[in-house]
Every structure is written in structure tokens, then in C-alpha cells.
Amino acid sequence: MELNGKIAVVTGAGQGIGREISLFLAKHGANVVVGDLNLESALQVAKEIEKLGTKGLAYQVDVSQKESAHGLIQAAIDTFGGLDILVNNAGITRDAMLHKMTEEQFDQVIAVHMKGTFFCMQAAAIHMRQEQKGKIVNISSIAGKVGNMGQVNYAGAKAGLVGMTKAAAKELAKFQVNVNAVQPGFIDTDMTRAVPEKVRQIKIAEIPMNRIGEPLDIAKAVVFLCSDYSDYMTGNVLEVTGGRFM
Ligand code: NAI
């Protein structure tokens, strides 16, 4: 799965799953634009990438804002001379039970996951259609398949990403641009460390493989979908859950 010289953009790349995806893409030879709201953490990851021997560029982005998201894609083209890979990974949670969820909590989650992915895919598609090649991977969640208590906003957004992935895959297939999604299960990051310990243990006990997922488990699936090993796959949703909710 060589990605030598490929140019990748990863959103939400400053920590957690996005950081691991960025580093694993770099390990396979890609130059990576590390896009994150948090510039400090993006700079750290860009440094780690340079140590691996490829180029890393930290870029402060709010993917929910059109100009900002389009600027991120343009930065890859201007700095590295193109764009081969886009991974839409940036995400937030604003959990609340349905009867208590505010409009703001709903809108914020939809804006980052759905609008953010829309803006980044749109800017990338303009370039990739011209180049007649490209790989787009959208990070959904198993919550988009099975739902989750307190996450009407998040599960809705993550299910929405599946529809967006398939629609974009149909549009872009004739340009040799693959669009796929990954649905992670329960992965050990700040997002899940915020879950109360008792709930965490219940969720881990439900995993047939009997362990919480690591960011690298997701990065491996993403790199596969960014490589030519998956050239004949588009519109797919890969569940990476240790067997939970199969
Ligand atoms: P995390 O909270 O550790 O990292 C998320 C990153 O996204 C942070 O660096 C944050 O600064 C960045 N970000 C947030 N809003 C942004 C915005 N508007 N623009 C740009 N960057 C922004 O989360 P984690 O766990 O690494 O999750 C990554 C993705 O994987 C998310 O889309 C999440 O929904 C998804 N996911 C995570 C699972 C888990 O168990 N951790 C399970 C299923 C899906």
C-alpha cells in the first residue's frame, strides 16, 4: 500500500483518530495537510510527520465554515501542488437526551460533521474531477447505523454522512474518484474518555473482540481506502468495530 508522493488532507487531524490517520498516511509515503481547529496540536502532528520523512503542513481550519474549508483544500494544492486524498474526520459531540437537546446542540453537530464534509468534498471534487483521480474517505460512526442514547444529533449526522458518501461516489465514479466511509466503533480517544467510566466498561463488554479500538485500527482501514488496493471500491461503508453491532 504505497502512497509515495501522494498529497493528503486530513481534517480534525490534531489529535485522536485524525492524528493517527495522518501519521499512518505519512508512514506510507504521503505528504499531509494537517487541518484542525486547534493550530497548536496541528503543528505538533506536522512535526511528527516531518520526522517520518515526508512533508507535513499544519493548517488552522473550521470545517463548518465554507471559506475556511475551501481554504484548507486550496492550501494543499498551493503548497504541495495537488490533492490525491481527502479524509473528512473532524468531529464533535454535544450529547443530550432528545427532550432536552437544544437547537444549538443540534446545529453545531450537523455543522461540523455534515456541512464540514460537504464543504471539503465540494472543493476536493472540483480538483479531482479535473485530475480524473482521487480518494475521499468520510469518517462516519457505528452510531449512524444503530443509533445511540443521547445522540440524536450525532447519530443523525453520521447516518447522513453515509448518504452523502454514496451520492458523491455515484457522481465521481466516472472520474476515477473513490468515495467511501468508515464507521468506527468504540475507540480510545478524548471523545470516548469523556464518557463516564461505568458506561465505558459496559460498551467495552459488548465488543466481541473484547478490547476497545485504538486509533491505529481506524487508520489501517483508512489507508487501505486511500491506496490502490481499494481501486474498485466506491460507495462502501467499512465497519471497524471489533465486531460490535455487526
Ligand atoms: P477527538 O475529539 O479526539 O478529535 C477531534 C478533532 O477534531 C480535534 O482535534 C478537534 O480540534 C477537531 N475539530 C473539532 N471541530 C472542528 C472543526 N469545526 N474544524 C476542524 N477541526 C475540528 O475525536 P476522535 O475520537 O479522534 O474522533 C475523530 C472522528 O471519528 C470524529 O468524526 C468522530 O465523530 C469519529 N468517531 C469517533 C469514535 C470514537 O470512539 N472515538 C467512534 C466513531 C466515530
UniProtKB/TrEMBL annotation:
**InterPro entries in the cross-refs:** KR_dom, NAD(P)-bd_dom_sf, Sc_DH/Rdtase_CS, SDR_fam
Pfam families per UniProt: adh_short_C2 (PF13561)
Catalytic class of the enzyme: oxidoreductase
Q: Which residues form a coiled coil?
A: none
Q: Which SMART domains match?
A: PKS_KR
List the SUPFAM superfamilies.
Answer: NAD(P)-binding Rossmann-fold domains
Please name the GO terms that the record assigns under molecular function: 3-oxoacyl-[acyl-carrier-protein] reductase (NADPH) activity
UniProt entry keywords in alphabetical sequence? NADP, Oxidoreductase
Q: Its GO biological process terms? A: fatty acid elongation
The EC number(s) attached to this protein equal 1.1.1.100
Q: Which residues form the Ketoreductase domain?
A: 6-189
Give the UniProt family note.
Belongs to the short-chain dehydrogenases/reductases (SDR) family.
What name does this protein carry? 3-oxoacyl-ACP reductase FabG
The scientific name of the source species is Neobacillus citreus
